Amino acid sequence: MKKYYLFIDESGDHGLINLDPSFPVFLLCAVLTSEDNYQVIKDSINSIKTKFWRDKKVILHSRDIRKCEKEFQILFDMELKKEFYHMINSLISDSKYRILASAIKKEKYINMYGKLSNDVYELALSFIIERAIFSLDEVRGVRKELEIIIEKRGKREDKKLEEHFQRLLSRGTSFVKPERLKEVNLKIFFKSKKDNINGLQLSDLIAYPIARYVIEPDRANPSFEVLKEKIYQKEGKIYGIKIFP
């Protein structure tokens, strides 16, 4: 039995009522990695935290890092910032994991399905689960187990997502039958940001550059260049970013 984790975080607002023209997508981003490889990732992130803050309790958060807020005010020191980004980029490019992401283009989605259609968060999660199963299909000769780790959003939202997940288990998706989900003993766990899950923090770090790539694919995006080799590819094509519709 080989255990895998799917750490999922988001970028952008999943609401469809008030659209931000500067950020018109909702994106779920997942890090798919084995239990063994995750231990290495976890230790690497803790080493970075210990080096810069002497404390593993610091939570890496993409927005705070970009804006040098909270604990990340130390990054106003340009030499320190350069060293920090070098270590983060090495972590992202050298660690063993796959990126699976699902982006909903909200304006196009509303035009096709309306503002009161299915929850885009649930839809994006379904797309990611499909691609996770396809990715694990490539690991042959062993039984596999998959745990989804996702950040808590609120009691109502988490309950709604849990119900959607249970429906997926019983019905499957458009491309993955429920039997295939049961084969990997698929489970979902909701974790608080305070739980300080390093896998969720890695997913948070890579979600924003992917969202910016979806919004403006031709614009210079150095952070995306660092991570793009980790995106799930199939037959030489990027298969790990699902853009809908």
Overall domain count: 1
CATH topology category name = Nucleotidyltransferase, domain 5
Give helix and strand order, one letter per element, not per position: EEHHHEHHEHHEHHEEE
Q: Spatial order of the strands in the main sheet? A: 5-4-1-2-3-8
For the biggest sheet, the summary is: 6 strands, mixed
Overall morphology:
globular
Strand content: 15-25%
Number of helices: 9
Name of the level-1 CATH class? Alpha Beta
Taking all Cα atoms into account, the compactness measure Rg is 18 Å
Assign the structural class, choosing from mainly alpha, mainly beta, alpha/beta, alpha+beta, or little secondary structure: alpha/beta
Approximately how much helix is present in the residues? 40-55%
Known CATH architecture:
2-Layer Sandwich
Q: Between the first and last Cα atoms, what is the distance in angstroms?
A: 36 Å
Give the number of DSSP strands: 8
Q: What integer is the average pLDDT?
A: 94
Which helices and strands occur, and which strands form pairs?
Elements: E1 2-11, E2 25-34, H1 35-53, H2 62-67, H3 78-94, E3 98-105, H4 106-113, H5 120-136, E4 144-151, H6 155-171, H7 178-183, E5 187-191, H8 198-215, H9 222-227, E6 233-234, E7 237-238, E8 241-244
Parallel strand pairs: 1-4, 3-8, 4-5
Antiparallel strand pairs: 1-2, 2-3, 6-7
